[in-house]
Amino acid sequence: GKNALPLHKWLDTKEKVCFVFSQGTPTAQGGDVLFLLVDFERKEAELETMQCKHFKTQPGEKKCRSWWNSVGVKLEDNGEANFEPTGWSSAAYSYKGLESFRQLLEERLNAGLEVGSKRISVQLGNRSLAISYAAPKAFPIPTNGKTRVWFREMFEPTISVLDVDNFEFDDEDDEDDKDEDDKDEEDDESG
């Protein structure tokens, strides 16, 4: 249909696909980046959201706690979190937007399906904060639900020390090493 996502090439496959959405307005409420992970074989999808925070050092706990509002989580002082907040709070506003986007994606994923076809179900997944400063000794993280916090160390290019173009796994070399070891043993026995 007119409003369908261009998924026709995957619908009859067993592919897993990730669509990445970036919010174009940096001051808008809600996550900065959203990920739609679709498993076409199982007819399931999960919408994850991530909010990025750029600070050199950690601000106070109250401010850090408020960051969860952007991903639709109302974090209480005791660490409990409401993942479906209601009312007129910042967290509720973000949740309503996230839920509306989830519903829209589910509608678009299923647009044009034949009658009787299994529909793709879209669920809300992880809600994450990506933070530019180093991991502190303490940080307010919800104790219930699907949340993650990524600190600077998780984004640093530690893998860049590998020469990826010339990287080979040891699995293939194991047989060659074994043959050489066996040959060395034969030489030892004959000498």
Write a structural description.
By secondary structure, this protein is of the alpha/beta class. Helix content is 27%, strand content 23%. It is built from 4 helices and 7 strands; from the N terminus they run βββαββαββαα. The chain has helices at 61-66, 90-110, 152-155, 171-190; strands at 16-22, 33-39, 44-53, 74-75, 81-82, 121-131, 147-150. The strands form 2 sheets. It has a 5-stranded mixed β-sheet with strand order 1-2-3-6-7. The chain has a two-stranded antiparallel ribbon with strand order 4-5. It is globular. It starts with 15 loop residues before the first strand and ends with a helix.
Q: How would the blueprint of this fold be written?
A:
Layout: E1 16-22, E2 33-39, E3 44-53, H1 61-66, E4 74-75, E5 81-82, H2 90-110, E6 121-131, E7 147-150, H3 152-155, H4 171-190
Parallel strand pairs: 3-6, 6-7
Antiparallel strand pairs: 1-2, 2-3, 4-5
Name the descriptors:
two-stranded antiparallel sheet, 191 residues, alpha/beta, single chain, 27% helix
Mean pLDDT: 77
Across the major sheet, the strand order is 1-2-3-6-7
Radius of gyration: 24 Å
Share of helix among residues? 25-40%
Number of β-strand runs: 7
Number of helices: 4
Task: Tell me the fraction of residues in β-strands, as a range.
Answer: 15-25%
Task: State the distance separating the first and last CA atoms.
Answer: 78 Å
Major sheet description: 5 strands, mixed
Quick recap:
With 191 residues, the chain is of the alpha/beta class. The protein has helices spanning 61-66, 90-110, 152-155, 171-190; strands at residues 16-22, 33-39, 44-53, 74-75, 81-82, 121-131, 147-150.
